[in-house]
Amino acid sequence: MRNENSKNTESRTELSYETDTGVFDLDTSILADDLRADARLCIAEQKSEAAGLLSSSFKPSPDALAEVSEEALVRLLDQGTDVHGISKQRSISNVIVFGAENIADSVRSATVDALRAKVDERMGKLVKSVFRGSPGLVVGSSGHFWYPPGSYMSWHTNSGVPGWRVYINYAEEEGKSFFRYRDPSTSKIVTLMDKEWNIRIFRITSASPLWHAVYSNTNRFSLGYIIYKESLAERVKQKVRSVFA
Q1: Cβ contacts of residue 240 below 8 Å, gap of 6+?
Q2: Per the CB 3.0–4.6 Å rule, which of 71, 183, 225, 228 could disulfide with 166?
Q3: Is the pLDDT of residue 199 over 90?
Q4: Per residue in 34-75, pLDDT tens?
């Protein structure tokens, strides 16, 4: 495998729900100023609600970069292990989690939930607009994370819940955090450095797992979404109702 550092992956403004595959950076100009403001309010409340964790139980990891290294992925691939995600294996991450019912140390806050719901309503419409010509799509919320300096989410696939995933990320300092993935078609490791705002969208399939990981040496805030067909709504809801797969 070869490691590639990149400022951007393929940038698109419109995708096919059925046929496109890969990782895409969406142009962040689609984020209206008032939507960014609402996201910042949510972030500010996250900081307030989780301040105690940050000063007590959360500890930066000296092994963070090693956990998201190519060598760490090679070991997993050699073992034939599939790591589905944080809901099943909390140990793969050193992050502050919000609103996850099945994760014991998750921060639960009605105020954070309400502020996120306001952002989610707008983001759902925005995400759907990327898949023009694909009626009957549903956008649901998934992972909600704060990555303090020295945090990470190690290699995983999310293969337990196939479909399209979107993450809107805000990084307080540009160039100090990144999203890293293994291209299923080339086996190359690609590292995408974060700007202040990022919108990344990628397709998860069981047949061709997308191994990916996150590292941060700044305060990085992430809101996740899953896109699925309305006909699959109940099946998907059962899988993501209380997990961040």
Answers
A1: 140, 142, 161, 226
A2: 225
A3: yes
A4: 999 999 999 999 999 998 888 788 899 999 999 999 999 999
Burial class (CB in 10 A: 0-12, 13-18, 19+), 227: buried
10-11 and 23-26: which strand pairing? parallel
Alpha-carbon distance 147 to 97, whole Å? 9
Nearest Cα neighbor of 113 from 32, 179, 41 is 41
Among the listed residues 183, 225, 184, 177, the one whose alpha carbon sits nearest the alpha carbon of residue 201:
225
Q: CA angle 74-79-82, nearest 5°? A: 85
Q: Sheet harboring 10-11: ordered strands across?
A: 10-11, 23-26, 197-204, 163-171, 220-229, 137-147, 96-97
Bridge partners (DSSP) of residue 202 are: 23, 165
The residue segments making up the domain with residue 215 are: 3-240
Number of domains in the chain: 1
Whole-prediction pTM: 0.89
Assign residue 157 the CATH number of its domain: 2.60.120
| φ/ψ of residue 226, rounded to 5 | -125, 135
